[in-house]
Amino acid sequence: GCGNSALSHDLHELGYTDVTSIDFSAACIAAMRARYARCPSLCWAVMDIRALAFPDASFDVVLEKGTLDVLLVEETDPWHVSPQAAAAMRRVLAEVSRVLRPGGCFISITFAQPHFRKPHYAQEAFGWSLRHAACGDGDAGAFHYFLYVMRKGQPL
């Protein structure tokens, strides 16, 4: 779910010109195509993260920034996620694992703390390693966010 974030364009400007962005909203994707029409190497597609239309082993990197949080937004207890939400998360992560090439990297950026997110990511079935780091500007009043990095083909 790229939404209307400038991240894809920012990556393009940093030299990552082969960037594919997806969102379930056709209106959003149309707006992003128009906004960044001057960058023809940016690819925009309407797609559901639960059923990616890409072939197996299509990507070196999959990056999500807050998209997975949507799957858990209606949960009332982060310690006890509903079976439906857990299944949705597994379905999406299985799709991410499927489209990653061997040695590929899945990067997840979220406010979700490790004790809530790691149980979803740390599953042998996905075939990846897991590391995480807390990020923030060091200001005591600032919210920290978390960076999770999974490497396909490395041991959990």
Automatic annotation (TrEMBL):
Give the transmembrane ranges: none
Keywords of the record: Methyltransferase, Transferase
Q: State the InterPro entries in the record.
A: Lys/N-term_MeTrsfase_sf (IPR051419), Methyltransf_11 (IPR013216), SAM-dependent_MTases_sf (IPR029063)
Q: Which residues form the Methyltransferase type domain?
A: 1-107
Gene3D superfamilies found in the cross-reference section: Vaccinia Virus protein VP39
Q: Can you cite a GO biological process for this protein?
A: methylation
| GO MF annotation terms | S-adenosylmethionine-dependent methyltransferase activity
Give the similarity note: Belongs to the methyltransferase superfamily.
List the protein's name: EFMT4 methyltransferase
What gene codes for this chain? Eef1akmt4
